[in-house]
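Hi everyone,

Forwarding the result from last night's run.
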Amino acid sequence: MTDKALGSNYFKEPSFPLSVKKVDRKFNISHSADLTEIEHFHDFTEIVFIIKGKGIQMIEEQEYPVSAGDVFVLQGNQKHYFKEAGAVEIVNVMYDAKKNKNLISEPIRKLEGYKALFILESQFRARHYFKNKLHLVRSDMAKLEIILNSMILELDHQFEGYQLILKNRLEELIILLSRYYSRLDATEAQSLVRIGKVIDYLEENFAEKIYLDDLSEMAFMSARNFQRIFKKAVGSTPSNYLMQIRLQRARKLLRETGLPVSEIADETGFGDGNYFIKCFKTANELTPNKFRLRYGGLKK
């Protein structure tokens, strides 16, 4: 049976869901909610740093041999545990950016390596046996160890202003990891970085006319290869992903504004009002006007 790791067991303050825990079986270092060798999942983000030694980590029933310098990001209810942890020192950074959106600033989410490492790689690993992993050289890991140790100290003592320092340290960690990931030579990692760039483009330019050839050129791939890798990484075709962005934006405008349906069609990239109504009804089982009536859009 797989255990669910509850955020309440790790985050002392619900409004500030951030925790850093060290585990080292060799020196009997543990904590009260230690599930290292027990299969578990959770709905918050966990960054796993292998500080010393070697072991075997299981993620979604796949074995991943790990050693000092390896870093994993676990997201979205992925089942995981350490099959062999007796000879490794591990530091886990756990946080929930859904419950506190201020933990990670918006500019950080736009970094090249961020979307690849913190979103796409975990999704990719959940669907496929993804052999790639972020492995840091000793000098880079040493920089991160200093940050990790300072975070543990702040959490232990909770001096005045400790939450602000912890937020800054977390963002520094994420920025450095995003940089390191974007520099990887591995083909799979570079593919995810490029797909991440395309996703950023789609999310910012969904109202424009967007063509598959332009997206594949942006990713430095053939159209066929781009569609294949995009679907493997995201779980959707580029056109379906774009459709979901446009529909999400349309629902927001219907709920929060009194704009006519024809204007919403233009602002969300559908252009033709009839085409918009057809797509919206297929996805939501309601016409835009009925959706607005049901979910409280502003009346003109």
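The chain has two domains: 3-184, 185-300.

Cheers,
N.
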